[in-house]
Amino acid sequence: MKTCEKCSYESEENKSIKLEDKEIYLCSICKQFAPSNNLQEYLQEKIDWKVLESFRKFQDRTKLKIGMQEKAKQGKIMSRAPHGYKLVNKELVLDEEKKLIVEEIFRTFLEQDISLNQLAKKFNLSVNGLKKILRNFTYIGKTKFAGQISQGKHQPLISSELFNKVQTKLEKLNIS
Question: I need a surface site. Which of 7, 66, 77, 157 has the fewest CB within 10 A?
Fold first, then answer.
């Protein structure tokens, strides 16, 4: 363990820098804000590591989000399996029984003049749950994370044509 000279945070990850032939250790946050000139004065202004804890958590969340974005770009699933799929060895696989229900939900919404409330009741779903299904890119073989849509590694459950027609109807009905 190395202790940060600025905030006294102890970590294996603390980086060393040279100051007048002396090795100084700083945590990633203190090093990020360290001036290139007048480092001695910067080090004299002590700060409690607990004050910086929110910055550390933010950095951890940022690293996590970057990792998740990379995983999504590779077409991997970022959440639990949507209705009609199941997870097998961390891969999305069609659930042969439930996939028929999802297909029927899409077709019924598109072909019948039925309210979302009636359709949700018919399939024992909430209206919000129904809207999530109707808007889910997973069903056309794609993944969506942080506003980015990528080609998934899983088999589509419905055609892009059916999905796009449903999206058009949702827009016409002003359903968000």
Answer: 66
- Scan for tokens 């961390």, then name that residue: 90
| Domain extent listing, the chain | 2-51, 74-172
Average the pLDDT over 6-29 and give the result.
75
Q: Please, are residues 58 and 64 in contact by the beta-carbon 8 Å criterion?
A: no
CATH for 74-172 (1.10.530.10, 3.10.590.10, 3.40.50.1820, 3.90.1750.20): 3.90.1750.20
- Cβ count near 8 (within 10 Å): 14
Q: In this structure, are residues 5 and 43 in contact, taking their beta carbons and an 8 Å threshold? A: yes
